[in-house]
Design brief:
This protein is mainly alpha-helical. Helix content is 54%, strand content 4%. The strands form two sheets. The protein has a four-stranded mixed sheet. The chain has a two-stranded antiparallel sheet with strand order 2-3. β2 and β3 form a beta hairpin. α13 crosses α14. The longest helix has 47 residues.
């Protein structure tokens, strides 16, 4: 591969002449292929890349800081939050003043409604500043927690927020809103998909970023296939090595000192089978080299498009992307509350009643995600070419009083193989565990539905559940029924409390299996769990599991 040219499909989308990459990738060997692709990823500073070697979340060692921050004790906090935001800050300040001083319940209700739209208009301006080095900590805290005015909280509540750990110590993809908008602005994360995803052809930077995302999706897919094929070849080599070792093992011949017995019949058969295994090894090696070429081509596309992004000003803040994402986040906030929920956006003692372990901080959410995975071991997994890949989703922490967690998208539209999905979790829910479980259940459903595609009503998790739903002649939203059943599955059935329909329990046991530890705990509890464990054994014996 002397001259690497961009993929024809991407070149057509670019509507431009092919560009030769400056680096000669022909000198790249198998050993440094992954290293170079990682370098390309670091150039674009993508945060969505998944480490498929990680098998679980690490336990959270520290949930809160020992020493509280003094930021909320500052008399200038409110002033710093409002400064520099123009008319939107004046309008919000005026409405908030009237709301707090109003005694008439009817007028107070009117001001309360007006504050909702004024708050979101104000925060749309604040969100655009998150990538700026000059953005103050007070504005970030206001966006992160909806904490406009510290005096609206009790001293105990202020201390609670002052001890929340600010930095992402774990490195897991759980984001507060200020971090999320900053990553969107800097191009580290793509804006969430909406119905209106088409970008103007005049906006070269946005268009190239979109194409870069698609190319990076192809590169990740190619790397994934390459790793899988490399592992398969390694297993084949180990198998041949073991066969050779067994062939060269000879027993001592009785009655003759220092003499070894001849080949056994089993060893002779193994020698005869060696040619077939060597042919298979050569075939695997040929496929591996093909995947290496695909990976090099995909990496070349990424490099070309990265150059395009850089030359079109892609290094600047993606403010149009932030603006579009803000509208999406506003929709997410509405969805966490539901139609009948509390949509008041400002953090206040009147509505905030969460304890230390119930507030939706990054650490509390991570611990809940870890618990979910300890029970539902494949909660964040997707299958590709018979390989199970663990891909935890992006988690966006929404500062709302909602109780509903949900999945916004199961994976990136440009990379269905190794891209992360996106779930939204309300920070001030009545039950954080239920909110996170609802989001994971929604993710589970959407991933299974996308995997089954046109056959989602016939095959797999969604197909079997849909057929049970139809057989019971139930009415209502199918996914909502599934989410409620998933909550029972995780909170009750995992503890041996039988709450689900027998058929639903069998479907979930098959397609959303508990961990081995949970199964062993349930097995002696009741006959129904013993029967389900026996089904597992039967499937393993028939190679159909």
């Amino acid at each position: 591969m002397d001259d690497a040219i961009i993929d024809p499909e991407l070149a057509a989308l670019l509507d431009d002449t092919p560009v030769e990459i400056t680096n000669d990738s022909s000198a790249m060997g198998h050993s440094n292929l992954f290293a170079s692709s990682v370098e390309a990823s670091s150039e674009s500073e993508k945060e969505g890349n998944v480490d498929l070697s990680v098998t679980s979340f690490a336990p959270v060692e520290k949930f809160f800081e020992d020493k509280p921050s003094k930021i909320y004790d500052s008399p200038d906090y409110y002033k710093k939050v409002l400064t520099g935001e123009g008319d939107s800050s004046n309008r919000l300040h005026g409405l908030l003043s009237k709301y707090l001083s109003c005694k008439d319940p009817k007028d107070r209700g009117i001001f309360r409604q007006q504050i909702i739209s004024a708050y979101w208009d104000f925060m749309s301006s604040v969100a655009l500043k998150m990538s700026s080095p000059s953005c103050c900590a007070e504005k970030k805290a206001a966006l992160r927690y909806a904490l406009l005015l510290p005096s609206l909280l009790t001293e105990e509540q202020k201390t609670l927020f002052a001890t929340i750990i600010e930095k992402n110590v774990s490195g897991e993809p759980v984001y507060y809103l200020d971090e999320w908008f900053e990553s969107i602005a800097k191009g580290r994360i793509n804006p969430s998909s909406t119905d209106e995803v088409k970008t103007s052809r005049k906006d070269d930077s946005a268009r190239f970023v979109q194409l870069l995302s698609k190319a990076e999706g192809k590169l990740q897919s190619a790397e994934n296939l390459l790793r899988a094929k490399s592992s398969e070849r390694l297993r084949a080599e180990d198998d041949i090595r073991k066969r050779l070792d067994s062939i060269f093992q000879h027993e001592s011949l009785a009655g003759f000192s220092g003499v070894r017995a001849g080949f056994t019949e089993m060893q002779k058969r193994a020698m005869g089978d060696l040619s077939e295994h060597l042919k298979k090894l050569m075939s695997l090696d040929k496929e591996l080299n093909g995947f290496i070429d695909d990976c090099r081509t995909a990496e070349a596309d990424v490099r070309v498009l990265q150059q395009k992004v850089n030359s079109s000003g892609g290094g600047q803040a993606n403010l149009s992307g932030v603006s579009a994402e803000f509208d999406t986040i506003r929709q997410m906030a509405k969805m966490t509350c539901g139609r009948q929920g509390n949509h008041f956006p400002v953090l206040t003692r009147e509505y905030f009643h969460s304890s230390q372990r119930e507030i939706g901080t990054r650490e509390n959410v991570l611990e809940t995600l870890r618990w979910i995975e300890s029970v539902d071991v494949e909660a964040y997994c997707r299958v590709y070419k018979s390989q199970l890949n663990r891909i935890p989703p992006f988690v966006i922490l929404i500062p709302s009083y909602g109780d509903i967690g949900f999945c916004w998208e199961p994976f990136d539209r440009y990379n269905r193989v190794t891209s992360r999905g996106r779930i939204a979790v309300p920070m001030y829910a009545k039950s954080l565990k239920v909110a996170v479980l609802s989001a994971v259940a929604d993710l589970r459903w959407q991933v299974a539905k996308e995997k089954a595609s046109y056959y989602w009503m016939e095959e797999g998790l969604t197909g079997n559940y849909y057929q049970w739903f139809q057989s019971k002649k139930l009415k209502g939203d199918l996914k909502e029924y599934f989410i409620n059943d998933y909550l029972l599955w995780m909170l009750k059935e995992s503890e041996g409390i039988q709450k689900l329909d027998k058929e639903v329990r069998g479907i979930f046991w098959r397609y959303m299996p508990f961990s081995k530890e949970v199964k062993e705990k349930l097995k002696p509890r009741a006959l129904v769990y013993q029967e389900l464990c026996q089904r597992d054994l039967n499937r393993e014996m028939s190679d159909g599991y």
